[in-house]
Amino acid sequence: MGVFMREEIIAVLRSIVGDGEPIELSVPEAEIFGHYSTNWALRAAKARGVVPLELAKEYAAKIADAAPAGFFHKVEAAAPGFINFWLSNGTIQERFARVARDRVFGGSDAGKGKTVIVEYSQPNIAKKMHVGHMRTTIIGDALANILACSGWRVIRWNYLGDWGTQFGKLIAAYKMWGDRGVVKKDPIVELQKLYVRFHEEMKADPALEERGREEFRKLEEGDRENRKLWDWFKSESLSEFRKMYQTLDVDFDIWIGESFFERDMKPTVQLLVDKGIAERSADGGIVVTLDDVGLPPALIEKSDGASLYLTRDIANLRYRLSKYKPSRILYVVGNEQTLHFEQLFAIARKLGLADADLVHIKYGLVLGERGKKLSTREGTAEMLDDLVNDAIVKARELIEAKNPDLPESEKTEVAFAVAMGALKYNDLKENRTTDIVFNWEKMLDFAGDSGPYLQYTYARLKSVLRKAEDARLNAKFRPADAAELAHAAELALARKLFEFPDAVRRAGELYATSQLAVYLHQLAVAANKFYETTPILKDDNAVRRRARLALAATTARALQKGVGLLGIKTLEKI
Ligand code: ARG
Fold it and tell me: Is 384-565 in the same CATH topology as 119-256+316-366?
C-alpha cells in the first residue's frame, strides 16, 4: 500500500509510549508549528501527574532517537505540551518519489473483505425530485465512491418511495379526472397536479378520503386495473429519474423500493408480536413500546390493518441482512427523519438484528440565497431540474465571459461540467448536518472555495504537462530526481500530497465528505502556489525539470481522483 505518513509517525510514537493511550496527530495550519503535531503529552501528563511540557520535552528527545536516522528534520516540544514534528527534506523527497509512481494512490484497504450498503436518493414516484433529493443523491454517491476506494464492497441502493396510501389517492384522482394523453406529455407534473387536486377537493368532500383508502386496498389486493395504473405511474417516474441520474452522473446497483416489501408486512408484524416486542394498543393498532430507550411508541400497523413506512423499513432491513450480510448500512436521509431511524434501529436491536452498524447519515436543508427555507407548500420550491438548469445557465454565462473564443461545443461541455462541479462541491464541502446555502457567485468563483476552482487548478496543471509534451520535455521521472525538490512551495506541495490517502480514509470513516473536499481545496491552494512561484518548463536543469513535472503530474492525478470521488469531472481545458 501507498504512503500513509501519519501512520508512520504514529507508529514511531507508539513504539515508545506503548499501547493503550490514544494518539492523535494533526497537520498544523502553519509550518512553524510543525509539519505534524500531537497533543498526546497533554493528555498523558494528566494521568501521570506530571507537567505536560516536561513530558513533551522528554518524549520529543526519545522520539528523535527512536526514528530512523534522517527521518525527521527536528522534533520539538512546545507549550503547553505539544510535540511537533518536521520531516527532513530527504524524507519528503523519498516519499514523493514513491507516491509519484504509485498507481493506486489514494486508496486503502480499510474496508477489505467487508460489505456496506449505501442507501441514497430514494425519490418518491409520481412526485418531482426536489432539492433535498439532490443532497441525498450527491452525498450518497460520494460516500459510496469513497468507501469503495477504501476497499469496501459497496452496494448502492435506491430505495424508491413507491408504496403507501398516497397511491390509492392518486389512483382515485386519476380515475375521476385523469387523461392518459395529458399525463403522457409531462407525467410527473400531471400526476402531482392530480394528487394536489385530490387533497383540495377532499376538504369539501371528506368522503374522498375513503375512496382513496378503497383504491389502495384494491391495489394491495392485486386488483388488475389499479396494479396496471401503478405500474404505469412507476415506469413513467423512473424514466424521468433516470434522466436526472444521467445528468448528475450517479448510478445504483439495486432499485428495490418500498413496494417490494408489501408481501412481508403481515409476517413482520407477526414476528414482532410473537417475540413480545409489539402489542395491540387500545385503539386497535399495533405498536412497539420504546420507553426503555427513551423513544415514543412506534406504530407498525394501523387499526384498519394498513401497513406503514416504518414496517416496510423493518422488513427491508431483515432482507438486506440475510441476503447481503453487510457489516454496515448507511441510510442517507435528511435530519427531519431522525426519529424514524432512531425507532427503526431500536426495534432492530430488540429483534437482535444489530450485528451490522446501522447509521443514519443525516443532512441539513437547502436554503435559498437569503437563507430562507425552500418549501413546496409555499410554491417557492426549487425543483431539482430547475436548479440544475439554473446552474448550467449561470456557468454558461461565466464561460462566455471568461473564454469567448472557445468553440461552441466545448463551451457547452465546459459549462455543464463546471455547473455540476459547483453544485456538488457546494454540498460536499460542508459539514453534512448543517444547512447549505445557495450563493451562485461563490459557488462559481474560479478563485474561491469552489468546485470550479479545483477544476481550474487541474486544467492549469494539465496545460503545463501538455506544453512539456509538445516541447518534448516530458522525459520519464526517475526516483533520484526527487532530490532536486528543495523550494518551500515544492516541499509543501509534496507534503500535502502525502495526506491524500488519509483524507480519503478519514472521509469514509467519519462519513464526512467535507474531510476530502477541504483537503482537495488545500491541495489546490498548494498547487497554485507551486505553479505561480516555481519555473517548470523554463528551468534549464533537466533533472529538476523532470522532478517538477512529476510533481505537477502527481498533483493533477490526485486532484482528478479526489474530485472524481466527489462525483466531479475534471476538464483538460477551461
Ligand atoms: N422516500 C423517502 C422520502 O423521500 C425517503 C426514504 C428513506 N429511506 C428509508 N429507508 N426510509 O422521504
Answer: no
